[in-house]
């Protein structure tokens, strides 16, 4: 997440691990000059509106004068030239109202521009997520997007939406025909081997890594939790049928050949070799 303009980072309200919501203010650049420009633009619009009110009043007065001169001409009290002068005055007043109205629009546009430039110094979270890294510190100069020339591209923080996490798995090209989009899968994290996550194949990348002879697949998590973190190592098993959440969370079971089971009355057991000695284990 980067700023839309360049400047000095004045405030940073998040740290690694902070939970943010869409639209939340997470950083602010120095903007004292822009704040002053916004105040000036708002004062200018107030002045232009006052001038518009004044022009409207002058137009009303000029209209009254036109009516008065028309009545006087009809009574033969005044001349046509006086009436024409009143009409010209009214036309000038109408033009003055139009000009004042356009001045108000210009002032409004200037306010909008300055407020937009001020808003560019406010950095907001683009979506709900968690801050995974900080790329800038308070007091540092940051640039807008790719114009910074820095490896981070002007980023202030990195925000990740963990709900969109997915696994990338390389499948040998000899076995890729057995994997299909929408196929069920079970994912096991190396960091949490006791937990299995249900997944579904979201995409099979239509390209082969010639050096490794593998095709990349992307598996979407169906039941993610807080233990999932980007860049973790994991293993995936592609299934021929879907697995329920209860079956996925059940502890793994050990299968043995039925021929090794011994019975003695109601007791079923197997003999397990430990340290060159056979011991009885109930099953």
Percentage of β-strand residues: 25-35%
Helix content: 25-40%
| Beginning-to-end CA distance, first to last residue | 57 Å
Mean pLDDT: 89
Shape category: rod-shaped
Q: What does the oligomeric state look like here?
A: single chain
**Main β-sheet, spatial strand arrangement:** 8-11-10-9-12
- Please state the CA-atom Rg, rounded to the nearest Å: 38 Å
Given the structure, what is the number of helices? 3
Number of beta-strand segments: 15
Would you give an account of this structure?
With 283 residues, the protein is of the alpha+beta class. 31% of the residues lie in helices and 31% in strands. The protein has 3 helices and 15 strands. It has helices at residues 32-74, 80-119, 245-249, and strands at residues 7-12, 19-20, 25-29, 122-124, 129-134, 141-142, 157-160, 166-172, 184-189, 192-209, 214-221, 234-238, 262-264, 267-274, 277-282. Helix 1 (32-74) runs antiparallel to helix 2. The protein is rod-shaped and about 135 Å long. The two termini are 57 Å apart. Residues 146-152 have low confidence and may be disordered.
């Amino acid at each position: 997440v980067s700023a839309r303009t360049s400047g000095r980072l004045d405030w940073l309200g998040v740290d690694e691990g902070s939970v943010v919501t869409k639209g939340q203010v997470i950083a602010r650049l120095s903007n004292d000059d822009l704040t002053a420009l916004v105040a000036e633009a708002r004062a200018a619009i107030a002045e232009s509106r006052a001038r518009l009110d004044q022009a409207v009043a002058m137009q009303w007065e000029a209209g009254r004068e036109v009516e008065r001169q028309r009545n006087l001409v009809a009574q033969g009290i005044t001349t046509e030239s006086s009436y024409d002068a009143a009409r010209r005055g009214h036309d000038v007043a109408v033009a003055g109202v139009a000009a004042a109205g356009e001045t108000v629009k210009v002032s409004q546009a200037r306010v909008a521009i300055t407020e937009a430039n001020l808003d560019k110094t406010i950095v907001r979270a683009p979506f709900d997520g968690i801050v995974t890294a900080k790329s800038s510190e308070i007091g540092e100069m940051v640039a807008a997007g790719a114009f910074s020339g820095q490896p981070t591209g002007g980023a202030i923080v990195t925000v990740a939406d963990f709900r969109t996490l997915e696994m990338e798995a390389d499948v040998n090209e000899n076995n890729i025909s057995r994997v299909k989009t929408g196929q069920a899968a079970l994912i096991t994290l190396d960091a949490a081997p006791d937990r299995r996550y249900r997944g579904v194949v979201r995409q099979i990348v239509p390209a082969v890594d010639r050096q490794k002879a593998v095709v990349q697949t992307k598996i979407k998590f169906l039941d993610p939790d807080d233990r999932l973190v980007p860049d973790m190592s994991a293993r995936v098993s592609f299934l021929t049928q879907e697995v329920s959440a209860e079956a996925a969370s059940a502890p793994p079971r050990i299968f043995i050949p039925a021929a090794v089971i011994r019975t003695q009355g109601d007791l079923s057991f197997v003999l397990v070799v430990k340290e060159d000695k056979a011991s009885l284990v109930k099953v």
